[in-house]
Amino acid sequence: MHQGSCLCGAVKFTVSGSLGKGSACHCQQCRQWTGNFYVDTEVQREQLTIEDEGNQLKWFDTSHKVRRGFCGRCGSSLFFDPIDKEKHCWIGIALGAFTTPTNTEIGLHIFVGEKGDYYEINDGAPQNEF
Question: Does the domain formed by 2-114 have CATH 2.170.150.70?
Answer without folding.
Answer: yes
